[in-house]
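If your schedule permits, I should be very grateful for your opinion on a structural question. I have a record of one protein: its chain in single-letter code and its fold written as discrete structure tokens. Would you kindly read the sequence against the tokens and tell me how you understand this chain to fold? Thank you for your consideration; the sequence and its tokens are set out here.


***
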Amino acid sequence: MNKLLRRTSDPSRIPDNAAGGLLHIDLDVLASNWRNLRDHAGGAEAAAVVKANAYGTGIEQAVPALLRAGCRTFFVAHLDEAICTRAVAADAAIYVLNGLLTGTGPTYADFDLRPVLGSSEEIDEWAAFSRSEGRRFKAAVHVDTGMNRLGLTVPEGLALRDRTDLQDFDLALLMSHFVSAEEGGNPLNGQQIEAFQAVRQSLPGIPASLANSSGIYLAQKPHFDLVRPGYALYGGNPTPDRDNPMSPVVGLEGRIVQLRWIEPDQTVGYNGRWTALEQRRVATISVGYADGYPRSASARGNSSETVLAGMALVNGRRCPFAGNISMDLIAVDVTEAADQVQRGDTVTLIGGDLTVDEVGRRAGTIGYEVLTSLGSRYARTYRGGEG
């Protein structure tokens, strides 16, 4: 028992038969998706966004696989993620998107990391830190072209050329971020490209980056010098109005821990929000919202209604959820597959034609949230990734 408890502290080493859910991650497909995006980027360098623990797949596993594929630049959200990335990517360029927290300059220097500076105050602090150390440390500057979240305003970006303290550090990248690149016809895309080009032209010779996953596929081809794919690397569709050019990286299975017949007019789950109108066979799966599966995919109504709620693949058959998703359990109506199901079997929650994008839609959210919420209680298996 003690040996098992010690092993389960590391999700990658949880024995399959001790976990309610099985998370499968294909590192070879991850690398292939990166190469696909690189080849579509028109000669620009392709970085990789590995924030949120590489979108739930694991920084320690995903980054080495991407390095072997040829990736040399990585983006994370937080400083601790950057330190984790540095541990497995000794020579890569690593940018921290959420900027420079006060007083963290020495940590950036110790680990050779690059903040993405998004305000005049951050530029002031980074320039002063570089002067104090007598070194021109590298950083990116983020200009906001429409997101209104992080970054200098466009007028502030145009005024950068007059700032003498830019000479105190190495401005290695000028960047911005699309608001709606997944909507190819959105006029805001063109407006952002125009604004970003104006700032770029005012700072000649500085490498520039605008395109995220979806931005790589825009008709305007705003690839500039470096593209920053994230979601698409992990199998999400960067072109939701067209077929997905990416291949799935993540598969999720849940284990059946009990089967029961539900009689007519009986309810399933908390608060009795789902009712059987006739006898139904229900399987209880040992996965819940504490494992990162969105509770918003709960099924409400009755066994005859067609609702946009969660779905599982049971021996290749689509079977709908029944009732509210619990912290640790999901009930699935497996009546149509009842003669093929037994306790201990696994059902597919992500995989096959049940894509991560569809799982997100059925939960009223997006595949990004599904991937980045994948929890630590799954037994994780990795395929490929070797040199």
Notes: The first strand starts at residue 21 and ends at 26. The mean pLDDT is 94. The CA atoms of residues 237 and 245 lie 7 Å apart. The domain at 41-234 is CATH 3.20.20.10 (TIM Barrel).
